[in-house]
Amino acid sequence: MAIEIERKFRVQGDGWRSDVISSSPMRQGYLNNGGNTSLRVRISGDRANINIKSGGIGIRRLEYEYEIPLQDGLEMLAELAQGALVEKTRHKVRCGNHIWDLDVFEGANAGLVVAEVELDAEDEVFHKPDWAGQEVSDDPRYYNVNLIENPYCNWKTD
Hints:
Number of strands: 9
Low-confidence stretches: none
């Protein structure tokens, strides 16, 4: 069973930029959005993946991800994705013993920057850098699947 344990934080400031070890633009769309699972296609560079993730709120969820042919992924995004696509640049940043994913969103979600760290256990101790602000792991607005229907540009407060 594939378990994802992930904590999410709002990013404050640009202090993370000097520690970026790689960056990649991403586009992703959802083929279904409801019920107990989400089914996502993501294009990153010349690679495409399909991802199945259990629903619910919190830091622990089931997740399965598989590489698919790039052309299939592009076609799925163009023909099957429901609603708008989520566009972002993912920056990998080493911090302590972990590599964090920092997502700088574009389009309707421009201005939103979120950091995620994947853990091996829910109670795993990790170094929280200064640029990792408020934890938003339990706030469904910050889930990519929800940014399609309620993009950051529509939020009245954050």
